[in-house]
Amino acid sequence: MTRLIIEIVVLAGLALAGVMIALGANAYVVQLLFSTALAVTLAVGWNLIGGMAGYVSFGQVAFFGLGAYAGALAMLTWALPWPLAIVLAASLAALLAWPLGRIMLRLSGIFFALGMFGLARVAQIIVNALAITGGPMGTSIPTAEGPAATAMAMVALATGAVALTMAISRARFGLRLAALRDDAIAAAAAGVDTSRVKVMAFCASAGLAAAAGALYARNVGYIDPASGFAGTIELQTVLMVLAGGIGTVWGPVLGGVLISLLSTVLWARFPTEQQIILGALTLVLAIAMPGGLASIPPLSLWLRRPPLGVFKPTAFTPTAMEKAPAAVAVNGESAVLACRGLGKRFGGVVAVAGVDLAVAPGEILAVIGPNGAGKSTLFDMLSAFSAPSSGEIRFRGAPRGTMPPHLLARAGLARTFQTSRLFPRLTVFETVLLAATSHHPRWRDAEQATSALLVATDLVGDAERFPDALPPGRQRLLEIARALALAPAVLLLDEAMAGMTVAEIARVQAVLRAAAGRGTAIIAIEHVLPAIAPLAMRALVLDNGQTIAEGAPDAVLADPVVIEAYLGVDAMALAS
Amino acid sequence: MASIIALVILGLLWGGVYLLMAEGLNLIYGVMKVVNLAHGDLIVFGGLLGYSLFAHAGFTPIAALLPVALVLGALGAVVQWGILERIPLVGADGELRTLLATFGLSYVVSNTSFLLWGGQFQSIPFLQGALRLGPIAIPEGLLACSLAAFIAALLVDFWLHRTLAGKALRATAQSPLGAASCGLEIRRIRIIAFALGTAMAGGAGALVIALVPFQISSGGDLTVQSFTLIALGGLGNYLGAWIAAEILGLAEVLSQYYLGPDIASAIIYLLFIAVLLFRPQGLLGRLGRV
Amino acid sequence: MARQRQVRSAGRIILAAAWCALCAAPAARAAEEGPIRVGCSITETGPYSPPAVFELQGYRLAAEEINKAGGLLGRKVEIVNYDDQGNPSTAVQLYQKLIYSDRVDLLLSPYETDLMSAVAPLVTRAKKVMPSLGANVDAFQGQFPYLVQAITETPRYMGPAIDLAASRGYKTIALLIQNTQFPQQLARGIEQEATAKGMRVVFKESFPPTTTDFSALVLKAAEAHPDVIVGATYLADSEGIVRAAKAQNINAKMFAFSIGPVEPEFGRGLGAAADGVFGTTLYFPTLHTAGNAEFVAAFKEKFERMPDYHAAVAYASLKVLAEAVRKVGSLDQDKIRDALLAASVDTVAGHFQLSPTGLQIGYTSYVLQWQHGAQALVWPADQATAAPELPHGAW
Question: Which member of A25, A140, A275 has the closest CB to residue C121?
Fold first, then answer.
């Protein structure tokens, strides 16, 4: 709480200083203020998609140019008052970014970055070819007011942008963005609609860039395609974010202010070498300080993302964990999850060949089999992370169809992963909270549920730590807690107990028994039986993608077919 | 009729030029999964170096090829050793950092070029004539560049598949850990690969400056063009890159003729975005999206 | 410890940066006393700097000569210039600084057109006269009353080249236009000029500035069988068009470009292929304009190179501005503007005369041709140093 107050005070102080400069200083300093505030706005906007969502873009300048033109045209052709024209430009860009983001954000990494670069180029070519924009001649915007008005507006915009990221970093949305950036698949498994979250970040980023563009056009009074879509704007923005600290709230602000002032200074001292120095700076940052200034102590301490969620003390009682929503049979079916003839082929390789499976509420089913038997592929299909080549899946009494993973997770199908997929930048508490917010609409309920689960999994002492600091067994516990936070009807555990100590295994077993007791169906993949055997009511053995045995765990283990699958034919021959 | 044949020939030849400029990037990506954002600037640097050799020592672009490639190769080795080796490649962070490092490098290279050669466009008069086959004129310069691209592709292919060093390189590309456990010194192999990639970029620049005037800010576009091409072809896929280059050359020339130059200059990006969305693995080859 | 030091030095950088930003704005000087300060921003660094540096040298030489001749209104002239790096928003920032912080007495123009367009509204708001080195027409239609054009207006840029073509009886033109501000405006002028001279534009296509491959475009242009291929272009695209024409053996009776052949790089990059190609220039060292021989000699002595047209028009613009100030006898901007509008002066760059809205109607342009590896001024005939070689032979 105090942290929030400090941040608000700092922001208000900066904004006030900006306004005072705008009102009191001479025009040159006012213009310098304008460019600095512009840099901060662009950096903060870029950071939303490039840093917080983790989608580095080399084409956000497309929205800057779009905003500049939309604003200019709104002022010229409809004679809108300029503040209104800026709002209009921002809304237009955000609106346009929605479908665009839906398409472009299917790309990732360098593909998204350069795809956006291409898009910016296409936008520039279009604007250059249109008559309404004045084509290559550009458009003049007669401005009546001096630079102080636009500078103040820019300061206001920058302040708003920072306030927006401050709010985001403290909200459910910020938690989801952070999870998305760390691991999109794990985020989806925790019920996060990753594509929606990143498209929203993209739209906000586009809106900010467009508002900045419109204000820029107003301030300069002239816009042409070359200056509206200038690659240098993009480069500078990226550098500022990087220098300040990518993905943090205050890093871009720091970078924006510092780099704009630094380049003013550099440029006075080393006019020709200035660009080389900035390039070399980027190089050095990438090698030695990828976290930017925000990663240097004590700044790193002050500027790190504030951890979310407050622990609500509870005791571990089975009832403290909520009831699974599907404790009873649904639609007259006894199975909550079932599949028939489920198959998957990758090219010519058949990974899973026609598996039938069903679990009833409260049942614990062990799926075992040697390496490459198709267990994890089976899980990926059941949890909708990969599409089956054949067969049908029924969930809670109805065909599952092509439901996306996050919706399935919200509907009560939770899973863990064979190699744990945790979020390096989320604390233990936040990791579980993320999934809990997918189930609980109210923040407080989510905190309550998270607290209960941490007690149940004995992770309370680690609540504020990051997953990297946990031993492997506790990391797996955390993954189970995250899955349980969805209050699942079905829980898919992929070798969840590998690498656990005896004490941890006992913990997990107690937690799983409690969950099953309240109706959660559990399917547990284990490489070897002992860990799951005490719990499992039924076992299913997969080999080469097919079910080779099914039944009570003891019976299955004694089955010669199973022994052969595990030990090989030769071993059998030797044994006999 | 003559014109459509002429256009197709031009398109195929320009495809060769595009391929020539993209080959170094493809090699580097193929071995290290690193997109070198300074690639285009290195092409320009190589081209301008070739220009200086021509202007001051009378070297033709072909004579300049070897010295330019050597200089750029040395530069590449230094970059890989001094910069990229210092960045761990694991995880999303590694990719981002490498991108940003090469992004910074592109600034350093292009502005060093500026200090050395100034901001004006430079070019070399070389092989400007046409070979005439009846009514059709085949530009000599384009032909030479296409041939060079083809020879370079063959040499790289031979080197990668028939020599020990090349095999080591491919092994490193497929599994750095596996290669290391076979006793291959990965660091050295990566340095060789990067140096080879930049040498190819420089050599391409030394030839192409006889076709297209270079100026320091041309680099960014060349990087994107080259990257687009190898992404179209399926990253690291040599045959794919060649096919993509020819498609790009044809699309560019034909659209310039039939649809107008505006569309022609956007066609590369439109193709890029379309291919990524509808065929993310590239025309032939590897995955390019989540 | 090391970390702490890092933080401290980071802090020092912040302080230093803030300090420098504050120092960059010196208190306004007392006017009246001291030299007359003439301000401008010039692209001294970056890819667009070479022509702008010529311009700055033109300004400097003019200022030096004015001071040698006793200054202006009894005061010395001092040029205050900053580097805008070719960036319009930086230019705007710098003109703010010049006008409101440095409070310069007179303004000169940046180079090139887009920078000038960017600062035009600001300069107009401040009611400062600026002899502008922007060739575009729209800035001089009354919208910016304090801007006067000190360079040949774009549409008339290639008039003499068309004139030369018409004088040889050529009838048809293929027009290739770079899709940016200056070439587009120029293309309109070329069309008008051609129609006026009884020629026909049989092919017209514009291409984006990023175009590097011109083969299909030139092939298509050739299918219209033009007598003359005209490019409203800059250096790289004019070279690209000549290359594409030669490599595909596409012939015309005349090849002429706006900007390109005027640069020495054109001849260096194309070698023998440059020979026979026509270009446009606003100035040539051999011109018989007023005081040109002295200007060339002084420029060569001071800067150890030949002046180009940027240097000449910049030099002329400060000279004309000083003349107007002298006539007015004060630094009253409105009066200076009126004096400029009424001026009819012969300069090194030609006859300076303006329309009532400030459009340059006196300056003209000249046609040069690459002949045997060097530029020769070939048209108009009264200024020519060599006869034009026409028609262009087969490649």
Answer: A140
For B63, the 3-state DSSP assignment is helix
CATH class in words for A329-575: alpha beta
Task: Report CA-CA distances (Å) from A43 to A246, A252, A388, A557.
Answer: 10, 5, 43, 61
Distances (CA, A) of C108 to C111, C131, C148, C181: 10, 6, 11, 22
Q: Which residues contact A208 (CB under 8 A, 6 or more apart)?
A: A41, A42, A44, A45, A48, A90, A157, A161, A164
What are C323-346's pLDDT values in tens digits?
999 999 999 999 999 999 999 999
| ipTM of model | 0.86
What letter would DSSP give residue C386?
A: S
Q: How confident is the model at residue B240 (pLDDT cuts 50, 70, 90)?
A: confident
Give the predicted TM-score (pTM) of the model.
0.83
Q: List, in sequence order, the alpha helices (H) in A190-250.
A: 194-220, 225-228, 231-244
Ranges assigned E (strand) in C3-133: 36-42, 77-83, 106-107, 130-132
Domain ranges of chain A: 2-227, 329-575
The answer to whether residues C281 and C376 touch, using CB atoms and an 8 Å cutoff, is no
Residue A220, pLDDT score: 81
pLDDT for B90: 63
10 Å CB burial of residue B214 (0-12, 13-18, 19+) is buried
Among C83, C93, C185, the residue with its CB nearest the CB of A32 is: C93
Q: Delineate the domains of chain C, giving CATH numbers in brackets.
A: 36-152+288-353 (3.40.50.2300), 156-279+366-383 (3.40.50.2300)
CB C173 within 8 A of CB C389: no
Instruction: Name every chain B residue with its beta carbon within 8 A of the beta carbon of A106.
Output: 277, 289-290
Average pLDDT rounded to a whole number, residues B229-242:
82
Rounded to whole angstroms, how far apart are CA atoms A438 and A440? 6
Report the alpha-carbon distance of residue A405 to residue A387 in Å, rounded.
Answer: 11
Q: Which residues are C242's β-sheet partners?
A: none
Mutate: best of A20, A28, A235, A263, partner C, most C CBs <10 A: A28
What average pLDDT does this structure show over C192-198? Answer: 94
Instruction: Of A491-500, B229-238, B277-286, give the lowest mean pLDDT range.
Output: B277-286
Residue-wise pLDDT for A215-270, tens only, equals 999 888 888 887 888 877 887 898 899 888 888 999 999 999 988 888 777 776 77
Strand order in the sheet with A413-415: A413-415, A490-494, A521-526, A364-368, A538-543, A546-551
Q: Provide the CA A495 distance to its chain's centre, in angstroms.
A: 25
